[in-house]
Design a protein that fits this description.
The structure holds 2 protein chains of 2 kinds. Chain A has 3 helices and 9 strands, in the order αααβββββββββ. By secondary structure, chain A is of the alpha+beta class. Chain A folds into 2 domains: about 30 residues; about 120 residues, Immunoglobulin-like, CATH 2.60.40.2470. In chain A, β5 and β6 form a beta hairpin. By secondary structure, chain B is mostly beta strands. Chain B has a single domain, classed as Immunoglobulin-like (Sandwich). Chain B contains no helices and 7 strands. In chain B, the strands form 2 sheets. In chain B, strands 4-3-6-7 form a 4-stranded antiparallel sheet, with no helix packed on it. Chain B starts with 5 loop residues before the first strand and ends with a strand. The chains are: A alpha+beta, B mainly beta. Chains A and B meet through β4, β6 and β7 of A and β3, β4, β5 and β6 of B.
Chain lengths: ~150, ~100
C-alpha cells in the first residue's frame, strides 16, 4: 500500500504533467491575474487607476459598436475592434453600472484585435472600449447607449 | 458541472470566426431574492481560448457580462480541422472546458 507521502508526490507529478499538456483549467496558466480592484471600481477613472495604465485618449482607430437604444439592459450586444498594431488588451466599461469594468480581453498575435460580447447595463450610460497597447498607451472609443429597461432589477 | 458551451468555429478568409455561447447564471451580487436577501455574485471570471492547445485569447470578466454569455472573435490562420478549446472559470471555482473543430 502506498504511503501518504508517495500519493502526494504522485498527484503533484500528475498535476504538473496535466499543466504542461494544457489540460488544467485556465486560471493555472492565464497571462495575468483577475484584477479584483479593477472589477470593483465604480468609475472609469478608478478602473484606469486599478489597471495601472496611462490616461486614455479618444481615438478614431478604435471602433466600438453598440446599439443607440437598448430595449433590454440585461443583454446589450457590444463589440470593439481596432486596426492599431500592438494592442494587447481591450477593456469594456459601462460608466453608470454599479461596477464600471465589464470585461478585459487579452489578445495574442494569433487573434484579430476584435471581440464582441453582451453586457448588462443598469441605466442609460456611456459605454467605453479601451484599447491598451504593449507600450502602455490607452486609446478609447465611447458611445452612449440608452436603456429603456434596466438589467439589474431582475 | 455546468451545461456545455455551444461553440461554432467557421473558417472564413485567412482565419476562423468563433462564436461561443456559455451557459451560466452570471449573478451580479446586486439582486435580491423574494425574502429581500441579496443573492451573492456568481459569475465567470476567466475565459481562455486555445487553438490546437496554444492559448490565443483570454478574457477577464466582471459581473456586468450578460447571463449565458456570448462572445465572438477571430483567430488568424486557423484552418478547417483545427481544434478550438475554450475554458471558463467562475468565482466559485467551478470550471468547464469544451472543444470544437473549425469547419
Amino acid at each position: 500500500m502506498p504511503t501518504r507521502r508517495e500519493v502526494l508526490a504522485h498527484s503533484a507529478a500528475v498535476a504538473a504533467a496535466l499543466a504542461s499538456a494544457g489540460l488544467l483549467p485556465a486560471h493555472a496558466q492565464s497571462q495575468s491575474k483577475w484584477n479584483k480592484a479593477a472589477f470593483e471600481a465604480k468609475s472609469v477613472d478608478d478602473v484606469i487607476k486599478a489597471l495601472g495604465t496611462a490616461r486614455p485618449v479618444e481615438s478614431k482607430d478604435v471602433t466600438l459598436t453598440a446599439p443607440d437604444i437598448a430595449e433590454n439592459g440585461a443583454v446589450v450586444p457590444i463589440a470593439a475592434s481596432t486596426t492599431l498594431p500592438g494592442v494587447k488588451q481591450i477593456a469594456f466599461m459601462v460608466d453608470k453600472n454599479p461596477t464600471t469594468l465589464a470585461a478585459v480581453f487579452e489578445f495574442t498575435d494569433a487573434v484579430e484585435t476584435s471581440v464582441a460580447t453582451r453586457v448588462k447595463m443598469a441605466e442609460t450610460s456611456n459605454v467605453y472600449a479601451v484599447a491598451l497597447t504593449a507600450d502602455g498607451k490607452a486609446l478609447f472609443a465611447r458611445k452612449e447607449v440608452k436603456v429603456t429597461l434596466g438589467g439589474c432589477g431582475g | 458541472m455546468a451545461d456545455p458551451m455551444r461553440i461554432r468555429a467557421q473558417a472564413q478568409g485567412s482565419g476562423a470566426v468563433v462564436r461561443v455561447l456559455m451557459s451560466h447564471e452570471m449573478e451580479t451580487g446586486y439582486r435580491k431574492d423574494a425574502e429581500g436577501k441579496t443573492i451573492p455574485a456568481w459569475n465567470i471570471t476567466e475565459v481562455t481560448v486555445a487553438l490546437n492547445g496554444r492559448t490565443v485569447l483570454s478574457g477577464h470578466w466582471g459581473t456586468a457580462i450578460s447571463k449565458n454569455p456570448f462572445t465572438q472573435f477571430t483567430i488568424k490562420g486557423a484552418k478547417a480541422g483545427d481544434k478550438v478549446t475554450i475554458t471558463w472559470v467562475d468565482n466559485r471555482g467551478d470550471t468547464r472546458t469544451d472543444e470544437a473543430t473549425v469547419a
